[in-house]
Amino acid sequence: MLLSIKEMEVRKVRFAKTWEPGEFDFPDTGIVQTGPVATEGVAELLPDSGDQVRIQGRVSASLETDCHRCLGRAAFSVDASFDLFYKPQSAAPEEDEIALDEGEVEIGFYDLPGLELEEIVREQVLLRLPMQLVCSEACKGICPICGVNRNETACQCEAAAGNDDRWMALKDVHI
To answer: How many angstroms separate the CA atoms of 121 and 125, rounded?
Structure first.
């Protein structure tokens, strides 16, 4: 769904969209939709701002992915509001490196004819997920020696202390 800048010049654009399971894609993340991804809100062109757009709304989603510790399935839900600001791409600095103040860090840029709602929702959902996606805080992970899932099977493996071969090449370095 395109949030049209031309339409925002006339009035605020209200949006409400729901994607059923399997309709919303999170490419290259391993995240799959297990329930509806829904959003609603309003997009408006701010007066006297040089074509700055403000998008306020709410997003909710039910997702599933592989646990980062045990590779089992981990479920997550998102229910959050957002308040975003965008400027035209022509207002973006053209230098390779520039200094940004705190307010500029939170501004995105758009190209005409407008902004894609799906991209905004995808970004907001991914930003609301924890950095480490685990099935539970108590997840024990996979044994590095025998490879069993420690949540399902107790193993008797013990890592030998001090025998980390990765550092052996540095043993003979003298400073």
So the answer is: 6
Beta strand spans in 13-101 (E): 13-19, 32-33, 37-45, 53-66, 73-88
Measured CA to CA in angstroms, residue 139 lies from 60, 67, 76 at distances of 26, 9, 15
Residue pair 81/57 in contact (Cβ under 8 Å)? The answer is yes
Region of 42 (left: φ > 0; alpha: ψ -120 to 50; beta: rest) is beta
Instruction: Report the candidate in 128, 119, 132 with the shortest Cα–Cα distance to residue 25.
Output: 119
Q: Give the integer Cα–Cα distance in Å for 16 and 33.
A: 18
Indicate yes or no: pTM above 0.70. Answer: yes
Helix (H, G, I), strand (E, B) or coil at 103: helix
The mean pLDDT of the chain is 86
- The confidence score (pLDDT) of residue 82 equals 94
**Residue 91: CB atoms within 10 Å:** 13
